[in-house]
């Protein structure tokens, strides 16, 4: 998917919501567990309930790998089921030597047909570039993550005073463009979005870590949005596990609707 | 597997060789391609041909993921086939937020029964610790990798003058011990092994990037070995693709034998 197509979808739906399809088998509604493929049935219902409210879906691959070959089959069917208009992100956080990254890229972009893959930066250029060589596909590079451990290395000052995440963002701009490279920037660092927009004014940011709270969303949108919106805000558990019973899909829709309504209002004021 | 069991195996076999089971489907001998599961048949033959010469096997998961659910089935069968005495490493380079890392740990250690997983450090403490909570299991943390891109971030000087890989190694010693934490240190940085042994005198190092050349192996063993040997030297393509025809397993054995012979000689001189 091109940047223009993604931006058009955002404006049309008045939404920059990404729904995280983290279909943890231990948290699925019980009535699905006797279906042949509970994970796929769950994802299908979530997609039906949210597709007009979001622009992207992001399965975290751990939840599928944990189920072995059966999980990969659920993932494949889920990908097939997601409407073409949606941007699809393999949250894989891969990164390996060149030949191996090329193989991961082939698997996620070629066979599975994802639009984007999250990639870890530690191994540098040859771990990232193979993902950038696929026309119309995207790398979403970990920059400043939403978790507690983001404090351990990502803020470390380099010799020139830059924190590591800034070095990562700047270095990656030698490899990719705003047309094929995004960054992960966690919503748990709202105070950083202004500075991050100075480092990367044009790139899209994938923002995990937003709850149902409007506060964070407002702050990160105010400081993080650019002329093309430039944000994909992800919510996983807050949407897909909003309910636990037979009405889980309705509950998921309500949670997604609340976020989309906030987003529409924020977009009016950009 | 405990550290003592691994060390005993190394001394008994006079080998610290790890064979990388990177069964790239595009490079398998042609006569295997009409078997029902060519990847498993290939691994089976390689394991039979090398098991007395090596102490560990390390499948890189990319080669299995690239084949989707079929690949996971080949991997599962391969793991089952590897003799219990061998140390098994899932070369996965995973690292995600706490809950997700826990799920990966459950998948690799629990369901698949690997002894160790390679983990990427960028996301910090909560991405690594869940892997350390499994009794008798190991994290092998990326420190100084063997690829070109290792130059991009890993050598960056931090404020105190430490390169990033040193910071990663020291920080991780707050999380794990020489009994459940190893480091990846590439053979392409032989001049660094002496310094790395000052940072981590007791930890095992997993060393990728050794070819059939004795030179590198000698230098890294001289500077990198500790009282328990403390090295697992990996060779993947140099062994498993030493031959391309029907005699591929014999060729693989010869390549493994050459490395083991060098290792035995080096062990005598420690």
UniProtKB/TrEMBL annotation, chains A, B:
HAMAP family on file: OMPdecase_type2
Protein name from the UniProt record: Orotidine 5'-phosphate decarboxylase
Chemical reaction(s) catalysed: orotidine 5'-phosphate + H(+) = UMP + CO2
Record SMART domains: OMPdecase
Keyword annotations: Decarboxylase, Lyase, Pyrimidine biosynthesis
Lineage: Bacteria, Pseudomonadati, Bacteroidota, Saprospiria, Saprospirales
Family: Belongs to the OMP decarboxylase family. Type 2 subfamily.
Active site location: 93 (proton donor)
Pathway: Pyrimidine metabolism; UMP biosynthesis via de novo pathway; UMP from orotate: step 2/2
A Pfam family of this chain: OMPdecase
SUPFAM superfamilies xref list: Ribulose-phoshate binding barrel (SSF51366)
One GO BP annotation of this record: 'de novo' pyrimidine nucleobase biosynthetic process
Domain Orotidine 5'-phosphate decarboxylase: 16-252
GO molecular function: orotidine-5'-phosphate decarboxylase activity
EC number: 4.1.1.23
Domain of life: Bacteria
């Amino acid at each position: 998917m091109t940047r223009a197509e993604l931006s058009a979808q955002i404006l049309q739906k008045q939404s920059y919501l990404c729904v995280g399809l983290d279909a943890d088998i231990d948290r699925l509604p019980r009535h699905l567990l006797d279906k042949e493929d509970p994970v796929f049935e769950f994802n299908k219902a979530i997609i039906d309930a949210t597709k007009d409210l979001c622009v992207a879906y992001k399965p975290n691959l751990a939840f599928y790998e944990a189920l072995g070959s059966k999980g990969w089959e659920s993932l494949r069917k889920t990908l097939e089921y997601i409407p073409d208009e949606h941007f699809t992100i393999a949250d894989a956080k891969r990164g390996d030597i060149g030949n191996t990254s090329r193989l991961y890229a082939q698997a996620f972009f070629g066979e599975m047909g994802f639009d984007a893959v999250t990639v870890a930066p530690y191994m540098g250029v040859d771990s990232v570039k193979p993902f950038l060589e696929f026309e119309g596909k995207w790398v979403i590079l970990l920059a400043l993550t939403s978790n507690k451990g983001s404090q351990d290395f990502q803020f470390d000052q380099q010799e020139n005073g830059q924190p590591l995440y800034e070095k990562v963002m700047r270095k990656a701009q030698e490899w990719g463009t705003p047309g094929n490279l995004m960054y992960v920037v966690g919503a748990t660092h709202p105070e950083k979005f202004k500075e991050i927009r100075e480092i990367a004014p044009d790139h899209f940011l994938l923002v995990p870590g937003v709850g149902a709270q409007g506060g964070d969303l407002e702050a990160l949108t105010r400081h993080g949005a650019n002329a093309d919106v430039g944000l994909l805000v992800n919510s996983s558990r807050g949407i897909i596990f909003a309910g636990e019973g037979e009405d889980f899909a309705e509950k998921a829709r309500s949670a997604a609707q609340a976020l989309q309504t906030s987003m529409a209002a924020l977009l009016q004021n950009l």
